[in-house]
Amino acid sequence: MVPITIEDRSGQRQLIEVPDDMSLSLMEALKAYEYNILATCGGMALCATCHVQVLEGMEKLPPLNDVELDMLDTLPDVTANSRLACQLRIDKDLENAVFRICGQEI
């Protein structure tokens, strides 16, 4: 299990534990824990509705790919720590990372 802290839009933080043996994305984990995110495209990096900011642990994440970078460029509130949750796979590199949900609400 990989412990990850999620900060919702109201600033509330919750520690969640996500299995690292199922090849889940962070988006899928957020949906499983019933966080209010649209994830309209289902994880294809086509909508940016699973936008998150990495508050801690950015240095351990894989680099942005071109598709993710192109989608993030369409957002008005993008920051240097912005990522798409659908493009981050749950593995030990995400252990103890902290993410803030930014994408549109359902």
Describe this structure in words.
The chain is an alpha+beta fold. It has one domain: Beta-grasp domain (Ubiquitin-like (UB roll)), CATH 3.10.20. The protein has helices spanning 26-32, 66-72; strands spanning 2-7, 13-18, 51-56, 82-84, 98-101. It has a five-stranded mixed sheet. The protein is globular, with a radius of gyration of 12 Å. It starts with a strand and ends in a 5-residue tail after the last strand. One of its GO terms (molecular function) is 2 iron, 2 sulfur cluster binding. Residues 1-106 form the 2Fe-2S ferredoxin-type domain.
> Into which percent range does the helicity of residues fall?
10-25%
Spatially, the strands of the biggest sheet line up as: 2-1-5-3-4
Order of helices and strands: EEHEHEE
Q: Number of helix segments?
A: 2
CATH top level assignment = Alpha Beta
Any idea what the CATH architecture is? Roll
Summing up helix and strand content along with how strands pair, one would put the structural category as alpha+beta
**CATH topology value:** Ubiquitin-like (UB roll)
pLDDT < 50 stretches: none
Largest sheet at a glance? 5 strands, mixed
Nearest-integer average pLDDT: 94
Strand content: 15-25%
Number of domains: 1
Pfam families: Fer2
Protein name: Ferredoxin
Keywords: 2Fe-2S, Iron, Iron-sulfur, Metal-binding
Organism: Niabella ginsenosidivorans
Keywords, please?
13% helix; single chain; 24% strand; alpha+beta; 5 strands; Ubiquitin-like (UB roll); five-stranded mixed beta sheet
Blueprint of the fold:
Elements: E1 2-7, E2 13-18, H1 26-32, E3 51-56, H2 66-72, E4 82-84, E5 98-101
Parallel strand pairs: 1-5
Antiparallel strand pairs: 1-2, 3-4, 3-5
Family: Belongs to the adrenodoxin/putidaredoxin family.
Cofactor: [2Fe-2S] cluster
Keywords: 2Fe-2S, Iron, Iron-sulfur, Metal-binding
